[in-house]
Amino acid sequence: MTPRSEVPPVGTVVSSIRAGLSALAPSERRVAEVCLDRPDEVAWFSAADLAGAAGTSTATVVRTCQNLGFGGFQQLRMLLLRDLGSRHGDDPEAGERSGPLLVQTIVREVASDLAGSLSPLSHDALGSAVDAVRGAERVLVVGNGGSAPAAASFAVRMLGSGRRVDAPTDAILQQVLAQQLGDGDVLVAVSDTGLNPRTVEVAEAACAAGAVVVGVTAHPRSRLARLADHPLVVGGGAGPYSGHSVSAPVIQTAFLLALAQVCLDVTDDARSIETVAALIDPTDA
């Protein structure tokens, strides 16, 4: 990964590291995991200190930082120091003492995860995916399990523009429609893990039919990412509640709504808002 043109927002460096973790080689993952487990210590480390803690070389430390999108170890260290300073005076346990405060803690965590979620996203893949969707004769949108709501949000935005979009929820119908795709058609497949068997099977059927596959996932080495012509990797969260699938659906939905917005021109977007409003409350139409 090339160094990012903009530094991550304050408080999101750990989320950015987590987002790129699955794309790293084993020795690089060890470096990243030390940064995730001990970010406040790593902020004061030298490259040799981090290499020793991860059981690897300083060259691997530098390569890990670059593959995560940072300019090098010194930039990563300075950003960790920045985030450490921004937390000065906070009580890290305060948000977990009662129900209402726990809600605030989770919402803040999701906001931080969302801010760092685009770190692993390839701008080239995004541009190619937008071009493919814009030029598609037909778009099939598929998401199963926890990814279904995010996929549906993308489909609704596209349908409101007057585009030909199919978004079935039945697994058999997903397969049938994927097999009917062809040149000029696009499948948008959404799976946070990239391993959902129903979604992967639909992607395989679309590939066999000659359609273009756009895969939205948090894992660049997943089966879906490998199948996709345009893999769009948007990272998961780093905080303790990310494992409870709190951040992932928010990240997916926000990204897919933004993707739909970019795929529609201004005229289509205005029509989309009017159409969706009429579907929600026909009396206002």
Short note summarizing the structure:
The chain has 285 residues and is an alpha/beta fold.
Please outline the helices and strands:
Layout: H1 13-20, H2 26-37, H3 39-42, H4 47-54, H5 58-67, H6 73-86, H7 99-115, H8 123-135, E1 138-143, H9 148-160, E2 165-166, H10 171-179, E3 185-190, H11 197-209, E4 212-217, H12 223-227, E5 230-233, H13 247-263, H14 266-280
Parallel strand pairs: 1-2, 1-3, 3-4, 4-5
Helix pairs in contact: 2-4, 2-5, 4-5, 7-13, 9-13, 9-14, 10-11
* Number of structural domains: 2
The amount of beta strand, in percent, is 5-15%
How many strands appear in the DSSP assignment? 5
CATH topology of the largest domain: Rossmann fold
CATH architecture of the largest domain: 3-Layer(aba) Sandwich
Unreliable sequence segments? 89-96, 266-273
CATH superfamily of the largest domain: Glucose-6-phosphate isomerase like protein, domain 1
- Structural class given helices, strands, pairing? alpha/beta
CATH class of the largest domain: Alpha Beta
Largest sheet properties: 5 strands, parallel
Lateral arrangement of strands in the main beta sheet: 2-1-3-4-5
The H-and-E topology, N to C, reads as HHHHHHHHEHEHEHEHEHH
Please tell me how large the radius of gyration is: 21 Å
Shape: elongated
Number of helical elements: 14
Helix content: 55-70%
Rounded mean pLDDT score: 82
